[in-house]
Amino acid sequence: MVGLARSGMAAANLLLERGARVSVSDCLQNQRIRENVHALKNKRNIISIETGRHTEDLIKDQDLVVVSPGVPLDSLPVLWARKRKIPVIGEIELAFAACYAPIIAVTGTNGKTTVTTLLGQIFRDAGRKYVVCGNIGNPFSAELARISNEHLVILEVSSFQLETIDKFKPKVAAVLNVTRDHLDRHRNLDGYVRTKCRIFANQDEEDWTVLNGRDPYKDVFAAKTKAHVLYFGKNKDLGKRIKGLNDNHLAALSLSSLFGVPQDTAIDTCRRFKGIEHRMEDVAQIRQVLFINDSKATNIDSTLWALNSIERPAILIAGGRDKGSDFSPAREKFRDKLRAVVLLGEAKEKIKEALGDSIAIKDVTTLKQAVKEAFNLAKPGDCVLLSPMCASFDMFTDYEQRGRVFKEEVHNLNY
Q1: Which among 38, 149, 154, 162 is most buried, taking Cβ atoms within 10 Å?
Q2: The domain at 93-272 falls in which architecture?
Q3: Per-residue burial over 294-329, b = 16 or more CB atoms within 10 Å of its CB, e = otherwise
């Protein structure tokens, strides 16, 4: 097992439960890794554990290498394994091999977590058995014990996870949208699109592929799948029946329809859906300034979507670890929608260069400083929006921790 964060631990535990003899390797040595190592040390069939490095000796005698999503395919453990013709798979491939329930796999640049969460609530309201898991935060491997043949598995799948599938075959595969993202890993947009196509690589004529009718890559995806294709995104009749219907709602409605959920039930759930934590989440209103947590916005298109959805003038807090993004398309939108931008993290100089002198920019080093600076810049009736456009890993464990810290700092403001 290469990688010992959340999905790595889930995969290691699944392998141990099934009687495998497991060795573990992680190049990091942070608090989370130390806690996970401690949890594994006394387990039966743990052969060896190494942290702070990867060694070829640990890889060379294995029958299988399972990699966490954060482990790139050009990393040393993967190269060592392939040199010895040792199979390399990811955590969702491992879990799929042990799962006999139908799978709805959802991928896309933006909206994956919202659609999987909403779809779960639709199935709940329809009285169906379901499990929501995957990239959403609870690994597929960790949920197998409670998944029966009567369940539907609603699986959020990232491009990183799709790199390491082999026989993974969802009953329904959805690609919500594709925009420039993770180019630091996939090298270019074409590589990113090819990776997304892997979600339906093993589907056949008995399966379904669900695509966004407005996505520019829909024809590319439709040409690659052997499954039946269902499009969402252009249903005007549905748009009249639910106020504020967006593509995430339409995707969930289309997916639920394939499993016989009454349309009225699904629409009613969409009306009552409150969204997810860290995605356009109202935190507090202080001196008539609304604070919004959109920490899950880790690319520029997600932040632009957030700005389109708010009506107030805004101060944006952005920055973090760059994923190979081009920030220049934000210049015009920022000039029209924002009073100022507060930047922090590794990418702040790149963002600052892309924005030029189109908008006032403040430079800070911590999220605490960013919250205070944004509040000072805001006027009554404005909002302060955390929508970083970047990954969190330069300063935080993940976007969830970044969002929680933002909310804490908002509540700690002296007002």
Answers
A1: 154
A2: 3-Layer(aba) Sandwich (3.40)
A3: bbbbbbbbbbbbbbeebebebbbbbbbbbbbbebee
DSSP string, 128-152: --EEEEETTSS-HHHHGGG--TT-E
d(C-alpha 91, C-alpha 8), whole Å? 7
Instruction: Check residue 289 and report its DSSP letter.
Output: E
- Partners of 290 in the β-ladder: 285, 383
Q: How far apart are CA 342 and CA 14, in angstroms?
A: 43
Q: Where in the chain is the domain with CATH 3.90.190.20?
A: 281-411
Kindly report, residue by residue over 174-220, the tens digit of the pLDDT. Answer: 999 988 555 566 568 888 899 999 999 999 999 999 999 999 999 99
Taking each helix axis from N to C terminus, what angle separates 247-257 and 263-272, rounded to the nearest 10 degrees?
150
Superfamily holding 281-411: Mur ligase, C-terminal domain (3.90.190.20)
At residue 385, the 3 state secondary structure works out as strand
- What span, in angstroms and rounded, lies between the C-alpha atoms of 92 and 332? 40
Report the 10 Å Cβ neighbour count for 125: 16
Give ranges for CATH 3.40.50.720 in the chain. 6-86
Torsion, Cα of 74, 78, 82, 86 (10° steps): -160
User: In Å, how far from its chain's centre is CA 241?
Assistant: 29
According to DSSP, residue 293 is labeled E
Nearest to 338 by CA among 304, 371, 370, 365: 304
Under 8 Å between Cβ of 270 and 250: no
- Give the pTM: 0.83
Q: Is the pLDDT of residue 234 over 80?
A: no
Residue tagged 């959920």 (tokens): 261
**What is the C-alpha to C-alpha distance for residues 53 and 48, in angstroms, rounded to an integer?**
13
Question: Could you give the count of Cα atoms lying within 13 Å of 96 in the half-sphere of its Cβ?
Answer: 25
6-86 belongs to CATH 3.40.190.10: no
Residue 256 CB contacts under 8 Å (≥ 6 apart), including other chains: 119, 122, 123, 126, 266
Q: Could you give the residue range(s) of every CATH 3.40.1190.10 domain in the chain?
A: 93-272
